[in-house]
Design goal:
There is one protein chain. The protein is 43% helix and 18% strand. By secondary structure, it is α/β, with parallel strands linked by helices. It folds into 2 domains: 221 residues, Alpha/Beta hydrolase fold, catalytic domain (Rossmann fold, 3-Layer(aba) Sandwich), CATH 3.40.50.1820; 66 residues, no CATH class. An 8-stranded mixed β-sheet has the order 1-2-4-3-5-6-7-8, with helices on both faces. Strand 5, helix 4 and strand 6 form a beta-alpha-beta unit. The longest helix is centred in the first third of the chain and has 28 residues.
Length: 346
């Protein structure tokens, strides 16, 4: 039987120091994460009544001591987005606060416990919802009703001008907005195929499939008819999603953009956008708004469609680590500062 080896005092001291170093390092890391994810603004949950339902929102306000602030109303892009976009909006809200502006956003219907289903909405429904939020904000004593504007990304490109046609707005920040639903879908398909290095035969097959979907939409096909036409290749399409596409596939912002004439507009465009044809977007925006002299175009060569730095976005690990330790660095260089300066200039 071997005798038990008792740890020596020196070994105990070494273990104690090692444990202390680990604890200090862990505490420091937690401290950095908490510090980097603390923003210079106040946040409160708010409720907005619209159409017999309640929108679950967040209002972020500056800590500058002013009794009234301008307001940026956030209009989400596609997908089941909650009020803070999983905290992704907060660096922008902080930039707005530095310019003296509050920020308002809300959970999409059916997201984070909110009533309803966002897939039941048309672009007009979304515009009605946002117009109700603007009216709610104008009734608040802490919001300057003459300084309320809109921020919207991607799919919001079809919603922003519809809101402006319903209620006066003081400015618009349009982030990678789409112009035409069908052209945007085809552009995205071809861009992704090129990024994948798809063969000519695969590209031809994918285009044929896309054309079949377009034909079904034009003939107001049911979801069951879509499934029959696609067979096993439905790409995870659900009945709700098919209904959403069927309601909105004719969306085109070209004519609606006239509602923004004379309104200061900041149009931001990404250099690596595989979702939206930024050349078409800039051309249409300039055609509709340049004559009024209120359009500012900002380009970010290193940005992806999301306005995050492409070098970060294409790596899930880098995205997660940056979000934890330096969330303001997620965005393309100058993106946050340009929005703050735009609001300052107003």
């Amino acid at each position: 039987m071997r005798p038990k080896i008792r740890p020596t005092p020196r070994r105990l001291r070494t273990l104690a120091w090692a444990l202390a170093v680990v604890l200090v390092a862990a505490t420091a890391l937690v401290g950095v994460v908490l510090w980097q994810n603390t923003y210079d603004m106040d946040e409160q949950r708010v409720s907005i009544r619209h159409g017999g339902r309640t929108l679950h929102g967040v209002l972020a306000t500056p800590r500058d001591g002013s009794p009234r602030h301008g307001l940026v109303v956030y209009v989400h892009g596609d997908g089941p987005v909650n009020a803070t976009h999983d905290d992704g909006y907060k660096p922008m809200w902080e930039a707005n606060a530095k310019a003296g502006y509050a920020s308002l956003s809300w959970d999409k219907p059916g997201v984070a416990g909110a009533p309803g289903n966002w897939l039941d909405q048309s672009m007009d429904d979304r515009a009605d919802e946002a117009a109700a939020a603007v009216a709610w904000a104008r009734a608040r004593p802490d919001i300057d009703g003459d300084r309320i504007g809109l921020w919207g990304a991607s799919q919001a490109g079809w919603v922003l001008p519809k809101i402006a046609a319903r209620t006066p707005v003081s400015f618009v920040i349009a982030v990678s907005p789409a112009i035409n639903w069908l052209r945007q879908g085809r552009y995205n398909l071809l861009a992704e195929l090129r990024a994948d290095g798809a063969s000519a035969s695969r590209t031809k097959a994918e285009i044929a499939k896309s054309d079949t979907v377009r034909r079904l939409l034009r003939h107001h096909a049911t979801f069951e008819e879509y499934v029959d036409a696609m067979g096993a290749d439905t790409d995870g399409m659900s009945a709700d999603r098919w209904g959403f596409i069927s309601r909105n596939y004719t969306a085109d912002a070209t004519r609606d953009l006239t509602a923004l004439r004379g309104v200061p507009v900041l149009l931001t465009l990404a250099g690596h956008d595989t979702n939206v044809d930024t050349a078409e977007t800039e051309r249409v925006y300039r055609s509709a708004l340049d004559a009024a002299g209120a359009l500012t175009v900002a380009r970010y060569p290193g940005a992806a469609h999301s306005s995050l730095r492409q070098s970060i976005e294409r790596s899930e690990i880098r995205t997660t680590l940056t979000a934890l330790f330096a969330p303001r660095s997620l965005f393309a260089h100058g993106f946050l500062d340009d929005q703050r300066r735009f609001l300052d200039g107003l």
